[in-house]
Records
---
Amino acid sequence: MDLAVVVSEAGADAGAGVTLARKVASRVEHLVIALPGGERGASPAADARYVVELGEDAAPEDLAAVVSAFAESHGAQLVLLAAQPIFREALPLLSVSLGAAAVTDATDLASGADGLVATRMLYGGSALAEVAIQRPRAVVSHAFGGVPADSTAEAEPVEPTAPSGVRKVLSRRRLPSEASLKGARRIVSFGRGVRSKEDMAMITSLAKALDAELGCSRPIVEDMRWLGSDHQVGLTGTTVAPDLYLAVGISGQIQHLVGMRDSKVIVAVNNNPAAPIFEVADIGVVGDLYQVVPSLLEALGAAAG
Amino acid sequence: MRILVLAKHVPDTTEIRFSPTGELMVRQAPTKVNDYDRHALEEASRLRESGAEVVIASVGPPEAAKTMKEALAYGADRAVLAGGAWVADADPEAMAEVLAAIARREGPFDLVLAGDVSEDGYNALVPGLLAAKLGTPYVRGATALGVGGASVKVTRLVGDVEEEVEVALPAVISVTRLLNSPRVISTMAVMKVPMSKVETVDLAELGLDPAAFAPGALSTRVSAVRPVQSKRGNEMLRGEPAEIAAELAAKLRGMGVL
Ligand SMILES: Cc1cc2nc3c(=O)[nH]c(=O)nc-3n(C[C@H](O)[C@H](O)[C@H](O)COP(=O)(O)OP(=O)(O)OC[C@H]3O[C@@H](n4cnc5c(N)ncnc54)[C@H](O)[C@@H]3O)c2cc1C
Ligand SMILES: Cc1cc2nc3c(=O)[nH]c(=O)nc-3n(C[C@H](O)[C@H](O)[C@H](O)COP(=O)(O)OP(=O)(O)OC[C@H]3O[C@@H](n4cnc5c(N)ncnc54)[C@H](O)[C@@H]3O)c2cc1C
């Protein structure tokens, strides 16, 4: 195809998007969404760079409108959106306004005999599907986080469209971040095998002893509500790939595995020898976490002393 | 107040297996109401207790009629299920087109509630596509809802920012699992729902052209599905906790990950 437009927020690296777009388009333009007067970010060797300024509480409708107008006037066949929360709501609106096919969380793009083919996960990550695009245009979001960008060439300004006024933002509040799982070298993660909120202290100690971040499965966040969502590993949480992932009392359902299966070394502690987590583990410890974790703390303490 | 709830019939994705030759065995998996949609149904049911009328809309195979009974058991007036052979290949865009036709036929609605994502497709597209087709506002990720007068207030998390937004009704809102705790539905309660509350319709009855839903006419087509293998050659440690803990610590040190 002739032209792909990669769209990302300023400050977030757009490297992955441009690399992906290069696989299927001969020309790649980068549209940066920036705050008024704010940082412009970098474009990793795109053929052209544009910037549009939108306020912090700009609505997805406005984002969709400006990207749609840009794609239309430049004649782009592919709009590739970064894996950033602000694009999630805008994507379907954008695809309808462009009459384009829509694909979310693509992990790969290729030019097939009949046009663009996107790869994405299906069934919680147990399968990969190839999705053939059957429209002249596609709006795709990709599943990759930041990849460093190197070019900071001047960007040509793009005028935002008039605000739609569809939504009123009544309040905005940045939540204090509790965990930074992304990029962590070691993660100790626990699940429903931990029976009470008080027992979490044992896991926190283990994480401290290993100089690891604290992760958890979905029920700990969404059902027990013991931890905030930035601790959650998996399909709806964070995707991580640390050197060491230690899973304690986690069964290993596919939606959890998909968030950690690329870790370098995976260790699982579970008292059920048939738990699926053992299938993806390098080392499996069959035992009661209430005995194994204190013992492990001792073994690690001994090493330190 | 009239509310439309989107409820999808899905296989239990934790039960999906691959045959030794790598074929997906979806058919054998038990089916149910999509996880997130249960929270939309619960919210609608609570609004119904204060006088709202609740209609459920779904696109799915004939077996989905059973799932509709489960959805109705949360507390809704009736369900409309659109189906036909075309459903097997339908993509999110086609699903949204049919759901829009149901919304128009059964409407007008003040509020459309949906789940944020489905467990099987995980496209997170249908509610937004539906809103764009109906020309109404769309807000996703609801963790709290306040419906009043002519507008709805939605609390949600966007990255690490919690925001409250207000949009005019009618609107499409998709919800997360943090919105509420759905009531527990017993098998008995599902059995008690009369099948007469589930109306099955086809494309023609919705005024849609079947030709537009042929596999080649859709916006996307799944051309291949392959399993993801993540098995590792694992080593199992069993025995006295103190011994295996020491062994594990030594191994991790040996691997250079401590
Ligand atoms: C659409 C969708 C998205 C999802 N997204 C995510 C996600 O992002 N992240 C996620 O984690 N899940 C996610 N899930 C949920 C997922 O399917 C599982 O339900 C969840 O991961 C299970 O959490 P768990 O392992 O803590 O609990 P359980 O499955 O209940 O497992 C607890 C484990 O602890 C073990 N255990 C119990 N007692 C002990 C003991 N004393 N010592 C040692 N072991 C013990 C048990 O043997 C069991 O294996 C999602 C599901 C859906 C449908
Ligand atoms: C064999 C097979 C082939 C497939 N082929 C394709 C394909 O060609 N292209 C493709 O993109 N996908 C395909 N899928 C995936 C499937 O079509 C999607 O699940 C469907 O299109 C809707 O997308 P979603 O489920 O991801 O919805 P999402 O957008 O993730 O759903 C969000 C919410 O929208 C509502 N909703 C979604 N769908 C329905 C529905 N049918 N009825 C009622 N409410 C609904 C629910 O409230 C749901 O919580 C295929 C799946 C299978 C098993």
Note: Chain B has six helices and 15 strands.
---
Amino acid sequence: MVEMPGRIVILGAGHAGVECATALRARKFGGTVDLVGDDPHLPYQRPPLSKDYIKRPGDPLPLKPKQFFADNRITLRPGQRAAGIDRKRRQVRLESGEALPYDHLVLATGARNRRLHIPGINDGTAFELRTLADADRILGSIRDWRQVAIVGGGFVGLEAAALLTTMGIAVHVIETAPRLMQRTASPTLSSWFAEWHRENGTAVHLDTQVAAVEQEAARVVARLTDGNRLVADAAIVAAGVLPNVELAAAAGLAVGNGIVVDANLLTSDPAISAIGDCANFPSSRLPGRARLESVQNAADQARTVAARLTGETKPYDALPWFWSIQGGVRLQIAGLSKPGLSEVVRGDPDSGRFSVFLFDGERLTAVESVNAAADHMIARRLIAERRKVEPAGVGDLSLDLKSLL
Amino acid sequence: MGEFSLAKGHIYIARDGSRAECELPAGTSVMLGALTNGVEGILAECGGAAMCATCHVYVQAPFDSRLPEMGEVENEMLDAVASERRTESRLGCQIVMTDSLDGLVVRLPDRQN
Ligand SMILES: Cc1cc2nc3c(=O)[nH]c(=O)nc-3n(C[C@H](O)[C@H](O)[C@H](O)COP(=O)(O)OP(=O)(O)OC[C@H]3O[C@@H](n4cnc5c(N)ncnc54)[C@H](O)[C@@H]3O)c2cc1C
Ligand code: FES
């Protein structure tokens, strides 16, 4: 019989950390749970920050109400940062000097925005969008904005672009890659969104970098590598994230692109797990390893670890899914894609409602649905259950996808 | 439902024989009411965007007929909820509190994912 831990410390009070604490109590874990997070606010949901929150500011959407933590004997320590892990003594050292002993430690430290090596951009002039404080900082200035340069054409940058455009702000998106959302989207999806954003009034600069940024009076001047010179009221950097691995690395744990864990989400130390945006795990759905940035991944990994810590060990195998809202467009993705997959389009992209089915040889690995929720929900099951799907068939709208289940 | 008084602006969320009472200002969703009151059994992973279908509720009569008709997206998402879809199934994030919903009673399904 495996010994059950009595004291669990969770570092990071985002989607992953809060769900892990919640799931431990839901599974009747009887020991202590310490949830340490450096964000000073009550734990909140991040996705709305680039969606509703900026358009209709109010209270941020909480992950759980304040009372929940006390009611469930979860010791929430907001605004506290962990400074080190002493693996020998099994203690976390907080910046306040306090030491928290653990029997099991869960690293849910998430990710932070990537800073760019662009002269002039990091000297306080640029905005970011990861935390509530970032969003509030944008809200504090947005009224004066007529023109904004967004550096990065990934999900967050594009959601922000669509949002600002509806508020009457002229937006430029500058993307280094030859297409939008290159890391996760199929070429068909990328070009559909590029066209949509252009029609929506956003200037999309692909294959382009910001060479330098200067401050001119109250304005920002961005020199682009294509020779263009943009004058804007603000620049928002949305150029992807870096996993927060420093604590783990300093403690001697294996790190790569993220904190390296095994199929059970355990690090190289059996007393330490890692989950969410910071975890690099062996994927059962793609060859190799993955590190995902999604609510689904954070929540499902949290539940997998909570189950193991309460005696039910199962390798992490949840189906990845993701959503994004750009203006009125609802994008839902099931599964994981990678470069070089073959595409079958279902529906007419010009109608604004379609799905891209992505096959790795014969195997359906991902489905991207634009304004096609029904396709997405069926795709989740097709991929999760590893159903055999004929590539030729799914492009034909007379085929009822439900008949494949 | 005679066993509890239907106070103005309150909704009742029932599951496993227990009931939670939440105060819900007009304009907020049932999902948000459950979330901010720590009601278990509504996951709401997408934060109310009708993207996750983990805020599934069964709306009890007579309130089911007082709700505005569901949109196409909600209908498609409900088609794939983790528990049985019934005629009274709705997504909690798409039900917005109004005066005519005072005392609304919703029942939670066994599972959300
Ligand atoms: C603007 C925005 C929009 C998004 N939209 C979507 C979406 O539509 N759909 C979707 O699926 N996903 C979306 N995501 C991604 C999703 O929010 C993340 O995948 C999710 O938040 C990951 O959860 P996490 O708990 O792993 O990390 P995080 O949420 O980053 O939480 C980690 C926490 O740990 C804290 N921390 C780090 N180091 C320490 C330390 N040493 N001591 C104490 N605390 C520490 C961090 O400050 C942070 O608060 C979005 C993200 C952003 C930023
Ligand atoms: S909260 Fe996700 S669908 Fe309602």
Note: Chain A touches chain B through 25 residues (CB under 8 Å).
